[in-house]
C-alpha cells in the first residue's frame, strides 16, 4: 500500500506539472497574439522571441521542481542535496565562464531586440541567414543555401540586421560613351517610371551619372523596397532596363540580326 501511495503521488505530480506547463504555454501564446502585443504597445518581433524563451524557461523550472518533489517522495533529504548543488553550481560557474557569458549575452540580445526569430542577419561578416532560434546559450541561423550555423551567443558580435528597415536597391546601367547621353537617360528614366514590383515602397529614381570612362558611361538607378528584398528588386529592375534598351534598338543590348528575326 505504501508503494502504491508513492506511485500515485508521483503520477499526480507529473499530471499537475503537465497541466501547469500547458496553462503557462497558453498564457504565453495569448500574450504573443499580435492583437495583444499591439494593445500593450509591444513590438511583435520581440514578443514572439521572448515568448519562446519564456516557454523554455518555464519548462526547465517545472522539470526541476518535479524532480525535487519526486525525490522527496522517496524520503530523500533535500537540504544537503540543495546545499551541495549550490556549491557545485558555484564551482561550475567559475569553470564555465564562457557558458555564463553566452547566457548573459543571449539575455541582452533578446531584451534589447538586436534581432528576432525570422530576421535575416549577418554575424561578423561571415555568417548570413535567417534566424531560426534564439536560446540563452546559442543562436541558430540558416543560410539561403540551406546551411545551418549554430553560434554561441558570447561569440556574436558586429551583427548586421537586414530585416528592420526598408532597403535600397541600387542598379548601375552601362551605356556606350559614344551614344547620345540625353537619349540614353530618357530610356533609363522611362524604364524607371514604368517599373512596378510588389516589394517596392516607392518609385524608382534616376540619380545621375555615376562614372565616366573612355568606353562607358555608368547611369545609376535606386528604388526603396521592403527589408531584405533589394537583391530580387535589383534583378527585376535590371531586366526591365534591358527590355527598354531592346525596345529602343540600342546596338549594345540588341543586335540588328535579333531585330530582324523578331520582325520576321
Summarize it:
This protein is an alpha+beta fold.
Helix content: 40-55%
How much of the sequence is in beta strands?
15-25%
**Number of helical runs?**
8
The spatial strand order of the largest sheet comes to 4-3-2-1-5
In this structure, how is the largest beta sheet organized?
5 strands, antiparallel
Low-confidence parts: none
Notes on the structure:
- With 264 residues, the protein is α+β, with helices and mostly antiparallel strands.
- It has a five-stranded antiparallel sheet.
- Helix 1 runs antiparallel to helix 3 and helix 6 crosses helix 7.
- The mean pLDDT is 82.
Please tag this protein with its features.
single chain, 264 residues, alpha+beta, 5-stranded antiparallel beta sheet, 53% helix
Please specify the SSE layout and strand pairing.
Blueprint: H1 2-32, H2 34-39, H3 44-73, H4 78-95, H5 97-111, E1 120-123, E2 127-134, E3 138-142, E4 148-152, E5 159-161, E6 167-176, H6 181-194, E7 205-212, E8 216-225, H7 230-248, H8 256-263
Antiparallel strand pairs: 1-2, 1-5, 2-3, 3-4, 6-8, 7-8
Pfam families: MS_channel_1st, MS_channel_2nd
Protein name: Mechanosensitive ion channel family protein
Main location: membrane
